[in-house]
Amino acid sequence: MRLLQFLTQRLLISAVTLIGVSLLIFVAMRLMPGGFEDIILGPFASDAARAATRARYGLDQPVLVQYGLWLKAALGGDLGSSMISQLPVADEILRRAPATIQLAVMALLIAIIVGVPLGVVSAVGRKGNPLVPLARGVGVFGLGVPDFVLGAILVYLFSRFQLGLNVGGFVPLAADWQANLRVMTLPAITLGAFGAAQLQRVTDVSAREVMTQPHILAAIARGDAPGTIIVRHVLRNASIPVLTAASTFFGYLLGGTIVVEQLFSVPGIGQYVITALTNRDYAVVQAGVLVGASFFLAISMIADIAYAVLDPRVGDPS
Amino acid sequence: MLKHSTRSGWIARLGALLLGAVASLSALPAWAADNAITWGKPSEILGYDPHVETNGVSWQFLFLTYETLVTTGQNLDVQPQLAASWTQDSPTSYTFTLREGAKFSNGRAVTADDVVGSIQRVIDPALASVWAAQLGPIKDVVALDAHTVRIDLAEPYAPLLAALANIQAAILPIAELKAGTFDPSKTLLGSGPYIVEAHNQDQSWTFAANPDYPEALRPKVPTLNVEIIPDDSARIAALRDGRVDIATFESPDVPALLAGIPNVETVVQATTNYYRLDVNALGENSPFKDARLREALTLALDRDAIGDIALAGTSQADYPLPRAFPQSDACAALPSYVGDRATRLEKAKALVAEVGNGAPVKVQLIASPSVATFPLIAQVIQSSLADANIEVEILQLPAADWLERSFTTGDFDFAVSWFTGYADPSLVLGWWNPDFAQWNKVFLPADADLSAQISLAKQTADGPERQALFTSICETIDAQAGIISLVGKPDIVGIRTDQINATIQPAEGYFQTLKNLPSFTRTGN
Amino acid sequence: MMARMLQLDRRILIGGIILVVLVALSLLTPILPLGDPAKVAAGPRLSPPSWLFPFGTDQLGRSNLPRVLQAIQSTCILSALAIALTMVVATPLALFAAYRGGLIDQGVMRIADVLFALPPMLMAVLVAAIVGPGWLASVAAIVMISLPLFLRIVRSAALSVARRDFVTVARLSGASPLRVVFVHLLGNIIGPLTVQFAYALSVGMLIESTLSFLGMGMQPPAASLGSLLFTGTPFIAIAPWLVLLPGLVLTLIVIAINLLSDGLRHAIDPIEQQGIA
């Protein structure tokens, strides 16, 4: 019963947030200098041609009227069409979503598999344990090296020395999973590195906090095996901040990852939306942002439910 | 390390699993198919309708599927295409005879009515095509019979054939268009060498050779794949992997980047396109409203430095009349080009001192990062102008913002841009007439004499008289310093010579970088 | 507590020295005999490190050493400025929301939700396009992206502090609301905030460098470490020094910030747990 109430409340808040997001993007895009007509007409923009283009796409109406029309259509399930390709935005996003979701899942897995153990190691490692500086090093490098640099290095190394993974040439997972993994592993590593660093840090910090609590000190004094202490107490107690960080990272990835998609020619949502933003292809940006934000909200809602499961004390969703 | 056995075991198992996964994937597949050529291309099509589409990156697709009456040859000379032959009956009348057996990809034969309807559509004011004006003073287009078309002009127009060679004058299936069964803004339906088989927006295209195309010109390799790979490094990697057979580039550093890769040949193709500066001579707040500062600007520019440094030596100084044309000799001795730079710089300094009363003059240069070379060119310009006490602040505006300021609001000092040079010298010169090129009105002063001379050059056939006109036009343009030509804008092609045999024409005017694509063959075939 | 924070441990010392030396070198670039960072064609293009050009030259033949040094200040100062600005905006807002609760709290948190739900890179591009390219765009983008994060952190820290006895005691003893908020709450969350500042700083530098990737950050010839890395990456095969050297400096800065952050955390909460493995 409480869960139902909690879910209803979260759904309501999410709906309000989505409306806020869509309005913010709508207004912000029209505040940006230069419009769709400038892009499509290029340097050949006479006043008449500009006016004709604006009228053709309804860009000559007041912004709030345009927003109202958009919202009405969107609530009816119509996200509009790209002004550049003329293709329906909903179809295009659906076509691109699998690549983005796959990339996000792979990057998240890499981040968790690498980041959490390293975080534990750097938190519980004794002085002089050589793994501790290694773990911290991964954390620092992951945060300090921008994804486009790491990606460019991987592109160069893997194509120059033919290390077995491909750069570009996307193949859908359903078509050929091996070929797909060969293409998607490098971008997933590039993205996952940042997440791994973040999770290493969060795990480290929260595990340390837990380690100073009396029941852990007691367990150490009792002489419990380190593995037992880590799994039973440390990880369990550190799970909430780690879950928060992981879900935020995942939600961020689902919003589309511009740089990595471009570098590895992954046909995902991020590249689609950022190109549309440059081209002032309003309907595409609007829909892309809405989808990204929905993903983000859904993930954080799932994370909240997971908290409640992990730690029954977290009853109050506010 | 933890001394707990289950945990280290877990890590070991996971590690083995990952290594195994990578190992199982490590065999690279054979990329290239025997019956296909794959082209790695940086950009997707932006608009489908040839008559209104102005982006060269889109023309590269349109040229594959559409035909024009005539085309340009290896050196910008006019060649037959859909018209097998033509005659000039009088200074103002041309008759074209269509190729036998030409068919649209829906199987219908191309008729004279399609030609008439297409040309009428381009020049229809309601369509507002940019190419309408470049097609010249067309008075009438008539079908004499199913295979013959006559174009009548109001006055002589030398670049008519060159203008007809641009894809913006493509011949569309007009009957289908009128019947509403063909929407040129959504599909490609022409009589060109290729037919669209599949398209994955922003990812790839598959084209098949048009079976109705004349056998001698039909693509030798039946399938053409176009992979959209926006990132230069990724396109280089694809070329290195052999996943693409040929790739096109804009970045001038690509020859150096491709240099060490086995079996890759780099070709730098000259084009009639060139980088230019748009200078705001009219804006209230533009310091370049002062003609003295504009003159100082042209004198202080170091075009050689732009070519050598910003464009890595792939390009050299270009004139208002593009260097790729043999006629460009007429413009080779302009004041801002000749003599040593030190002398020009002295003059520039004196002018700047006059304008600024001894103090340096500050100006703002827009260089949109939407073209990767713009910021580089801007920085070399900044450095050269500093020598003449002109302090340049560079502003990297997004494309939409830059275009709006340059061509609509006129809220700028000067901006880096570039011209498509087309296939006749007088076509690009038309942009210096702001009554003709209305979008330039916000920054370019109208000069009645210059406009008259440009019109005259369009009426005059090649010869000494036209050369003299060109010289006079270029001199006026150089003195006016409203649009300043900088350096050529070459295209760069990387070819896997172990996979395909490809020839690249030395000069191009309409962005058809891979004009000879149908003649490419796979090695070993 | 403040006294303990001032207790210098080794990490704070090393991290601080690295940062101070780097920023000092950067600020002194104009008077050090290293060459002009903006001088085009000072040498051949893309030439490897040599005595004349210790960090090599870039795509326009500029000496890379003064460029890297100069870039340190734009990167560090911009990110620090942006994060400081975020803290200045977020802290009073979140404290106020937490203290008053009700509609004000709801309103502030819903705005934070909206900002948080927007894909960050897209928001950065939007903000930068509206503000116009330049250093201000970077600052504005970092502020907008980190604002919701700080609002949430400060609010939840404040809420947990507010439940503690000493705040209730202060309130019952008749202290003014303003005093309760600023002295007691702020005093107690300054620790977590400082640690967060260090982390956000390195994220801020990443946002700044990605904006440079899109040409909207520092305007040339000025450079940040991010824009140097971005312009250098295409040349990784033929001029790796253009990526490795600024990358090394950026990593050094992030290490220094992390050391500082660890040290501060320790200074605030000095119970050192024992290693068990």
UniProtKB/TrEMBL annotation, chain A:
InterPro entries: BPD_transp_1_N, MetI-like, MetI-like_sf
GO molecular function: dipeptide transmembrane transporter activity
ABC transmembrane type-1 domain mapped to chain residues: 97-303
Keyword Lipid biosynthesis carried by entry: no
Annotated Gene Ontology cellular component terms: plasma membrane
Membrane topology: Multi-pass membrane protein
Major place of residence: membrane
Keywords, ordered alphabetically: Cell membrane, Membrane, Transmembrane, Transmembrane helix, Transport
Compartments (UniProt record): Cell membrane
Transmembrane domains' residue ranges: 12-32, 101-125, 137-159, 242-264, 284-310
Keyword Membrane: yes
SUPFAM superfamilies recorded: MetI-like
PANTHER family named in the record: DIPEPTIDE TRANSPORT SYSTEM PERMEASE PROTEIN DPPB-RELATED (PTHR43163:SF6)
Family: Belongs to the binding-protein-dependent transport system permease family.
The protein's name in its UniProt record: ABC transporter permease
TrEMBL record, chain C:
Main location: membrane
Membrane topology type: Multi-pass membrane protein
Domain ABC transmembrane type-1, chain residue ranges per copy: 72-261
InterPro entries listed in its UniProt record: BP-dependent_transpt_permease, MetI-like, MetI-like_sf
Pfam hit, one: BPD_transp_1
Localisation per UniProt entry: Cell membrane
Protein name: ABC transmembrane type-1 domain-containing protein
One BP term from GO: peptide transport
SUPFAM superfamilies, sorted: MetI-like (SSF161098)
Family listed: Belongs to the binding-protein-dependent transport system permease family.
Keywords for the protein's UniProt record, in alphabetical order: Cell membrane, Membrane, Peptide transport, Protein transport, Transmembrane, Transmembrane helix, Transport
Keyword Cell inner membrane (UniProt): no
GO annotations of cellular component type: plasma membrane
Domain of life according to the entry: Bacteria
Transmembrane portions of the chain: 12-32, 71-99, 111-129, 135-154, 238-260
